[in-house]
Amino acid sequence: MPIDAAKALAAEPRTGEISWNSKDVQLYHLGIGAGLPATDPDELRYTLESRLHVLPSFATVAGAGAPGVISGLSLPGIEVDLARVLHGGQSLTVHRPIPATGTATATHRIAGLYDKGKAAVLVLRTEVADADGPLWTNDAQIFIRGEGGFGGDRGPSARLEPPAGEPARTVELPTREDQALLYRLSGDWNPLHADPEFAKVAGFDKPILHGLCTYGMTLKTVVGTLLGGDVTRVRSYDTRFAGVVYPGETLRIRMWPGDGAVRVAVSSVERDDAPVLADTVVEHS
Question: Cα-atom radius of gyration of the chain, to the nearest Å?
Fold first, then answer.
């Protein structure tokens, strides 16, 4: 049986040390499109080591993305075909600002395993703390096609009511044709994002952009547009990956600011506003 729910949920957490430095942070920022225009002060905070601020979504790749989607699928009780795997959603809670250089302890475990009938949803939780205490908590929701039907709980629904009214701000943000090739250098080596043959086996016409790349690009846009460029104001960031992005497409990012939170919806301009990110909320101070 590819998924042994009891074994997976009973497995002991995996704990290990992770570390990162300013070069890792800069590479991540470049992978999500920072640095244009290259001399813009708002961009230099992401690209110049002497001014470096860490966008909270860096937490999804810190320590080379460990455990990441691929390594998470090697946890006890989980044995699935990578071509059937899609990243379904991501939740990030930031306990305090992420330093540009750090060493921390990361604890990984399976926090949930849900039976959606024709698919399974696996929740991989990563809790990271350094000598001064907790830094962040990441939950990755992994959608595994064809692996449902094992008799488990269907799990909670992540769907939110759509934001009311017209967005307060809309930004159109182009992606580059080589963006996935650059972003994957931060640690997500899934061939779905680089290998055309693998992409076809997985059911796509060509490689797709990492969902977490779109996730980072969107957060950077919200911070720059509505939070005065202050990365330390972000408290949490949740999204559901509602569709794919092909490198070279343009993201349409719609924002509805509210009391302590921004609702966001992201779509593809070239594909008639096909949904990309949905149920997206950035909570902030």
Answer: 18
Q: Which residues are catalytic?
A: 188, 193
**Residue 85: predicted pLDDT:** 78
Burial tier of 157 (Cβ tally within 10 Å: 0-12, 13-18, 19+): exposed
Contact 3/78 with Cβ under 8 angstroms? yes
| Separation CA 59–CA 46 (nearest Å) | 15
> What DSSP letter does each residue of 164-183 carry, written as one string?
PSS-SEEEEEE--TTHHHHH
CA distance 17 to 15: 7
Outline where DSSP puts E strands in the chain. 14-20, 85-94, 102-115, 119-130, 133-145, 169-174, 234-241, 250-257, 261-268, 274-284
Show contacts of 189-197: CB within 8 Å, 24+ apart: 189/70, 190/69, 190/70, 190/82, 192/82, 192/83
pLDDT attached to residue 159: 83
- Residues of the chain with pLDDT below 70 are 1-2, 65-74, 79-80, 82, 158
In DSSP terms, 107 is beta-bridged to 15, 127
Rounded distance, CA 166 to CA 3, Å? 43
DSSP-derived pairing of the beta strands 169-174 and 133-145: unpaired
pLDDT one-digit tens code per residue, 86-129: 789 999 999 999 999 999 999 988 888 888 888 888 899 999 99
Kindly report, residue by residue over 241-270, the tens digit of the pLDDT.
999 999 999 999 999 999 999 999 999 999
Neighbours of 62 (CB within 10 A): 26
**The one-letter amino acid at 233:** R
Closest by CA to 58, choosing from 86, 13, 90, 15, is 90
